[in-house]
Specification:
By secondary structure, this protein is α+β, with helices and mostly antiparallel strands. 42% of the residues lie in helices and 19% in strands. The radius of gyration is 27 Å and the shape is globular.
């Protein structure tokens, strides 16, 4: 626990740790040259579990945390701030979680926000892959709730960088190498001050945040401009502009990164789409005062297809409630229901139109959308639209081998000057439909070269029926 001039809440924070139901721990407290009585308060506690240190110069949070990480001797390292309050069973529940889930190296929890006019709960994602995707957009973990495996942190060189958003920076790096999660329960009371409540970012923090976000964006193969990084930051719930111009900019940006992810497959497409839908919904709700201009964006933007059915309904109701200012509740309900029907029909048309546009890309498999292969004896039948090809199957031939055979014989063709990569998503094997979009169900062709991974290693056997859908990214 780093401490700098924390007199006001320090005792409460220290005692919340000393009173944990889990008692087998060392409590490392580092005073960062406080000018108030913080050091004296810490010294007044005689609990043998406390290990008190004092920096010779004011080192700031990141360096002080790194010092604490190196001093720690336990199997797990838990974070704590000098103004927050850990609930009594926090450590016990997090130790139990890490003991049970050996594949998880970092775990946080939900928090109850205190210190504001109203108390409320911040909930964070528990699924590791969903959490990793959310971290593409924002921090998605409450720093003082985190418990980490010391060995994983040291082995991977996970240390804090002094950039104002040292926690976000660390999670963005860590989630690419280890699994992270959150316990779906409030384990800490998180205190916010006036600047945090208003969402104000200092120049130092904003610069650090932009650096982390730009690094995240590059994973998709995009080299973002300064303006694009700003749009991404604001659209990810960091001080968004409440203007129609910005909403349109955010719409264009969400479409761009969605298409980039389609190509790079850096993140699960369904999860990525869901995250964009959540951010788009939040942006729309925040701008209800934009009236008809907002509704036009909602109808016309391709991003709206990322909204869940529930989000679409909630937006429409909230929109008409704000439009009529609740003067006539009956009218609001009737108009909302009518609008729901109209909008859902419009969105359905928009999505189908988008699918049709994507199907007409110049990169194609014999200019057709779908294909199937059926193995009969030593022959595979390859279907591309209304054309049929018999392909001889060699002993122990894999789907990967078959793809290369077809490509060499000119039956698998790619065209278009913007061609960069393509993939076959396997939809069905022997009548068993695939319900995921996991990478292992893809056969990749990148720059004309096939990648022998996932389902492509499946060995075709007599009587097998394999069907797949050919998809290509938009450029």
């Amino acid at each position: 626990m780093p401490v700098y001039n924390g007199v006001k809440y320090l005792a409460e924070s220290i005692e919340s740790i000393l009173n944990q139901t889990f008692t087998d721990f060392e409590f490392i407290i580092i005073d960062d040259c406080s000018t108030d009585d913080s050091y004296k308060i810490i010294e007044s506690y005689k609990d043998k579990r406390i290990r008190l240190f004092r920096n010779e110069t004011n080192s700031r949070v990141a360096e002080t945390l790194n010092k604490g990480m190196k001093l720690a001797q336990g199997e797990y390292i838990a974070r704590m701030d000098a103004d927050d309050v850990s609930l009594p069973e926090r450590l016990a529940k997090q130790v139990g979680f890490l003991d049970k889930n050996k594949d998880i190296d970092i775990v946080g929890s939900w928090v109850k926000v205190i210190g504001d006019d109203h108390e409320y709960v911040w909930k964070y994602e528990s699924d590791p892959e969903k959490l990793r995707t959310k971290i593409f957009f924002n921090c998605s973990m409450a720093h003082p709730t985190v418990m980490m495996r010391r060995k994983a942190m040291m082995d991977n060189g996970f240390m804090y960088n002094n950039m104002g958003v040292e926690d976000f920076d660390l999670w963005a790096r860590a989630c690419e190498k280890v699994k992270m999660s959150n316990i779906n329960e409030v384990l800490l009371n998180y205190r916010i001050n006036a600047s945090q409540s208003s969402g104000t970012l200092s120049g130092f923090h904003a610069d650090g945040l932009n650096k982390v976000l730009a690094r995240q964006i590059r994973k998709l193969g995009i080299e973002p401009t300064a303006e694009e990084t700003e749009i991404h930051r604001m659209a990810s719930n960091y001080q968004p502009k409440n203007t129609i111009e910005f909403i349109n900019q955010a719409s264009d940006w969400f479409i761009k990164i969605s298409e980039a992810n389609e190509y790079s497959l850096c993140y699960d497409r369904g999860i990525f789409s869901e995250c964009i839908g959540d951010l788009w919904y939040a942006l729309l709700i925040r701008n209800l005062d934009q009236r008809s201009s907002l509704f036009k964006v909602f109808i016309n933007s391709e991003v709206s297809k990322n909204l869940s059915f529930r989000q679409k309904i909630k937006f429409i109701i909230k929109y008409f409630v704000s439009l009529l200012n609740m003067k006539n509740k009956k009218s609001v309900v009737i108009l909302s229901l009518l609008a729901i029907v109209i909008v859902l029909l419009g969105l359905n048309y928009m999505v189908n139109r988008g699918k049709a546009a994507r199907t007409s890309q110049t990169t194609a498999i014999n200019q057709q959308q779908g294909a199937a292969v059926s193995s009969q004896g030593k022959t595979a039948v390859f279907y591309a639209g209304d054309k049929k090809y018999d392909v001889e199957i060699k002993d122990n031939e894999s789907v990967y081998d078959l793809m290369n055979s077809l490509k060499e014989k000119g039956r698998l063709s790619f065209s278009g000057k913007d061609y960069k990569g393509a993939g076959f998503f396997v939809e069905e094997i022997n009548g068993i439909k695939n319900s995921t979009k996991d990478n292992k169900y893809w056969i990749y062709y990148i720059n004309g070269k096939s990648a022998n991974i996932g389902i492509s290693q499946y060995i075709i056997k007599p009587g097998d029926n394999i069907s797949w859908k050919y998809e290509t990214p938009k450029f």
